[in-house]
Specification:
2 copies of one chain form a homodimer. By secondary structure, the first copy, chain A, is of the alpha/beta class. Chain A has 2 domains: 45-253, P-loop containing nucleotide triphosphate hydrolases (Rossmann fold, 3-Layer(aba) Sandwich), CATH 3.40.50.300; 271-316, no CATH class. Chain A is 50% helix and 12% strand. Chain A is built from 13 helices and 7 strands. A 7-stranded parallel beta sheet of chain A has the order 3-2-4-1-5-6-7, with helices on both faces. At the A-B interface, helix 3, helix 11, helix 12 and helix 13 of A face helix 3, helix 11, helix 12 and helix 13 of B.
C-alpha cells in the first residue's frame, strides 16, 4: 500500500515523481483511489484551469508551450495535461515528440502529463478531472488541459476547464468545420494561430461573423475575443495571456467562476455515481437474482421492465 | 390512452396497424410502455429470431426477401425488422426503396418494419428487443432482424437473435474486413451471396480458413456452415433455410436455445435497469441534494467519490 499522506506532501513540495504516482493512482482506479481523493479534497480549488482544443495541425502544443513560458515568467507553477482520446498510448511519459514542450522538461515549476484513452470505466471524461485535481492539490497555479481533436469527448473534457480556448489556423472552411464540431459554442477565447499565413484575417473575420450570429447579449455578457498569434515565434502570447486573465477576472467578479465549478462538480459526482451503479449491476451478472429474473422473462411470467424494477429495488436495499 | 388489451388482441389476429401501433408505443417509450410490455410477456417465446448482418452491398435485403418467400411457402408468419443505425429516418414506413421487399407488402402473413437511430435512452440496442417482443407476441413464427452495417451496435443487435447470419459477397479483403469488425465471432451461419460472381469460391475458402483458425472444438460443437447463394435469382435459398433449421434444431436439442435466451433476457434487464438508474440520477439535476454535494466538493470539504456515495445512498433510500 502506498503511504498516501506522504505522497501528497511530496507532491505539494513539487516533486514530479510524487505527482506522477498520484495521477497513476487516480487514473488506474486503484483500491486507494478513494483515500487519495479524500486527501486531495481540502487542497483543491486554487488552480485556474484552461482548456485548449482545436483540430490537429493548428499548433496546440506550440501554443501551450508558449503559455507555459509566459506563466513561468510570472513565477507561477504550471501543470499541463495533454489528452489524446484517439491514442492507444497512455502513461506519464513526457511528450518527447513535442519539441516545443520538451524545453520545459527540466523546469521543476512545470509538470507535464499525457493521457490517452483508457478502456476502463468512463474513459478520459472520467479520468481527466481526477488528474486535474491532483495537479491542483499539488500546487499548480495554472493547469493547461490540451485535447488533441475536436470530437465529443474533447468538447466534454474542455468543458471541465474554467476557461475554454478554441484554436484555429488559417484555411478554407476551418471555421465551418469548427462550427460543425459544436466547438463554437464552447470557446471563451478564440485563437487564430499561424497568423502570419495567408487567410488569417479571413479566418478571424469568418469566426467573428459566426460568433456574432444569434447574438442577443445583455450588457456585461462575455464576448469571446479573437486573438491572433504565431506561437512558434512567440508572437501574440502576451495578448493571449491577457485575454485569459481578462476572462478569469470577468468570471470571478460575477460569480460565474463559482457557478461553473459547481456545475462541473455536480456533473463529476453524477458521472461517478452512474459508473458505480453500473458496476454494481455488472457485479450481479453471476448473481442468482438476475438469473432468476431472466428465467421468468423467458418463461413469459414477467416482462423485462418489471424485472428491471425488481433488480433495482434489490440493488438499493443491498 | 390506448386500449392496450384490445390492441394486443388485434395484433394477435394479424392486423398490421395494431402491430405498428404497439411497436410505436414501445419504441417511443410512451407512458403505456410498461402496460404494453406486461401484456405482451405471456405471449412471447414462440418466434424463432434470425439476425442478418453484413456490409452494405452484400444483398441483405434481397436475401431477407428470399427467406420471407421461403418461409411463406411453408405457411409461416414472418416479421421483418430492418434496422439502420446510421439513418436519421425512423418510423413504421414500408421500405419502398427495397424492390424485392415490396413484393411482400400486400401479404398479410408478413409484417415489415424499419427502425432507425433514436436519440432517446439506449438507442436501437434498447428499442430493437422491444420491437422483437411485439412481433413475437403478434404471432410471427419467424422474425428476421436485418441490420445495415457492421459496427458495434449491429453486432449487439445481431446478438439478440437465436441464430446470427453473417452475409458476405465476393471481393478482395471482404473476409478480412469482416474479421476486423468482430463479425466472424458472431456468425452461426455464413452466406456468400452473389455466388455467381468471380471470386465467390475464394471468399468461401478464405472464410472457411478463418473460421477454422483457433479451432479446438469438441464433438457436437456447432461448426458454422458456409452457404453460397444468388439471392436475386433465388438460388441457394433452400440450402440457406435448411442451414437455419439445422442450427435451430441443434440449439433446441442441447438447451443452447434456452441458454441463449436466458443470457439475452439478463442483458436486456440489465440495460433497462441501468437506463432507469441513469434517469433517476438525471432527475436529481435540479435537486437540492446534488447541488449541496457539489458545493461541498467545490469547497473542498468532500471529495467527488464520497459525494457520489452519498448521492447513491440517497437514491436508493428514495
Amino acid at each position: 500500500m502506498v503511504d498516501v499522506p506522504a505522497l501528497v506532501e511530496q507532491a505539494r513540495e513539487g516533486r514530479p515523481r510524487a505527482v506522477a504516482r498520484l495521477i497513476s493512482l487516480v487514473e488506474g482506479a486503484s483500491p486507494q483511489l478513494r483515500e487519495v481523493m479524500a486527501a486531495l479534497a481540502p487542497l483543491t480549488g486554487g488552480a485556474y484551469v484552461v482548456g485548449l482544443t482545436g483540430s490537429p495541425g493548428v499548433g496546440k502544443s506550440t501554443s501551450t508551450s508558449a503559455l507555459v513560458s509566459a506563466y513561468r515568467r510570472q513565477g507561477r507553477r504550471v501543470g499541463v495535461l495533454a489528452v489524446d482520446p484517439s491514442s492507444p498510448f497512455s502513461g506519464g511519459a513526457l511528450l518527447g515528440d513535442r519539441v516545443r514542450m520538451s524545453e520545459h522538461a527540466s523546469d521543476p515549476g512545470v509538470y507535464i502529463r499525457s493521457m490517452a484513452t483508457r478502456g476502463h470505466l468512463g474513459g478520459l471524461a472520467w479520468a481527466a478531472p481526477q488528474a486535474i485535481r491532483v495537479l491542483d492539490a499539488a500546487g499548480c497555479d495554472v493547469i493547461l488541459v490540451e485535447t488533441v481533436g475536436v470530437g465529443q469527448s474533447e468538447v466534454e473534457i474542455a468543458s471541465q476547464a474554467d476557461t475554454s480556448v478554441v484554436l484555429l489556423a488559417p484555411g478554407m472552411g476551418d471555421g465551418i468545420q469548427a462550427a460543425k464540431a459544436g466547438i463554437l459554442e464552447i470557446g471563451d477565447v478564440y485563437v487564430v494561430n499561424k497568423a502570419d499565413r495567408d487567410g488569417a484575417d479571413a479566418t478571424a473575420r469568418e469566426l467573428n461573423h459566426m460568433l456574432g450570429l444569434g447574438e442577443a447579449r445583455t450588457p456585461g455578457d462575455w464576448r469571446p475575443p479573437i486573438v491572433k498569434t504565431v506561437a512558434a515565434r512567440n508572437e501574440g502570447t502576451d495578448e493571449f495571456v491577457a485575454a485569459l486573465e481578462k476572462h478569469h477576472a470577468w468570471m470571478a467578479e460575477r460569480d460565474v467562476l463559482a457557478e461553473r465549478r459547481l456545475r462541473r462538480a455536480a456533473h463529476e459526482i453524477e458521472t461517478i455515481a452512474v459508473t458505480a451503479l453500473r458496476e454494481r449491476i455488472g457485479d450481479l451478472r453471476g448473481d442468482r437474482r438476475l438469473g432468476a429474473l431472466a428465467e421468468r422473462v423467458v418463461g413469459g411470467t414477467l416482462d423485462p421492465y418489471a424485472a428491471a424494477d425488481e433488480l433495482v429495488a434489490g440493488l438499493t436495499t443491498g
